[in-house]
Each structure stands twice: as structure tokens, then as C-alpha cells.
Amino acid sequence: MAKKAEYFSCLECERNALQELSDLKSPHIPKIILHNENTLVMTPLGVKIHNLQKEDINDIIKILESTHSLNYVHRDLRKYNFICDKSGKIVVIDWGYCIKTDTDYDSSFAGALKCMPDEVLSSIIKKKKIFYSPKVDLVCLVRSFYLMLHRPSLTGVPFNKNDYDDISIQAQYILNFWKDCGKSDIWRNIYSAIDDLDYNRLIQELEKLF
């Protein structure tokens, strides 16, 4: 339920996306039961996760491959946007900031800064238009997974997301953090699979971490 009118557009975006994505008939995408201007009622119910399981990797990447084929980019893949339903299936939630890459989409920043790809962080720092592609989702997923695995301290510089100069400072801090992380061969192979947009190889490389 949106408590402020400024979030109505996010609900509308999520409703439109989930209605179209329902054609995939995937248990890993929420389904809308009822809605009005400020409310979405969805299924399934789920609980927050703290770590991803091996089978979750395959399920998430496969559903991303399907949604990307329909030109959707989630833009906000992070730990808090994955839930586990009562049967143990992973569900990707919070599609309110998603965009369709085949439209004139909103290129402003959306999502969790700490999971963003270097290209997005650099665009924020340089105050340039952000280009969102399927690779953004895959990097966000991988970096979210990395943070779940290693739980590094990312206190950084507090920022106000409405202050672009301030968010640029934080983006630089996060960019520097990722320059020093994930430099082993296995992580290089993971990022190589993302660069090639090879979903199956990405699954194989990530599963090696289990």
C-alpha cells in the first residue's frame, strides 16, 4: 500500500509489469489478486531470506532470462527483493522500478546503490544518463549474492537520494569498494558470463560457489 501519492506511479508500473509477466506462468513472479490506485494485493505470501540456496540461483537467473526476453529490466535486485514462499520457492518481488528497454524509459537512478554495476555508478558520478540493460540485473544479482556471502561492512558516507551531489559521493565510495572485491578467477568467470549475456554459463559459474 502506497502511503504517499508520489509512489502511485511505482504501483502502476508494478501492476502493468506483473500483468504482462503473468503470461510466463512462473511461480517465481508475484501474481496480482486485487488492486486500486494505492494498493496491490498479491500472492504468494513469503518470508525474507538471508542467503540464496543453490537451486535459487538457477530459478532466479532463468526467470530473469525470460523477463529480459520481454524487454523488462527489474533494476532493483537485492536481498530484500527476494522472498521464499511456503513451498520453499524463491520469488522476485518489488517490480515498481522496472523498465522496458524497448520504450523511452526513465533513465534516472533506481535501486540499491551498493549492488549496482560499475557502469551505473560511473554514470551517477559523472551525472550522465544511465543506460539500463539486462546486464544491470545480472550484476545486481551477483553483487547481492557476494554481499550475502561475505557480509562486508559498507557503512560508507550517509547520503540523501534526493541530493545528486551527495549520491555521487556515495557512488564513488561503492565503486572503489567493488574495485577491490571479487578479483579471483571464479568471480572473473562470473562477470565474463554476464558480459556475454550467457545465462546458462552464469548459473554454472555461480553454482561452483556452493
From TrEMBL:
GO terms for molecular function: ATP binding; protein serine/threonine kinase activity. It comes from the Eukaryota. Residues 1-210 form the Protein kinase domain. SUPFAM superfamilies: Protein kinase-like (PK-like). Signal peptide: none annotated. Gene3D superfamilies: Transferase(Phosphotransferase) domain 1 (1.10.510.10). InterPro entries: Kinase-like_dom_sf, Prot_kinase_dom. It holds the Pfam family Pkinase. This is Kinase-like domain-containing protein.
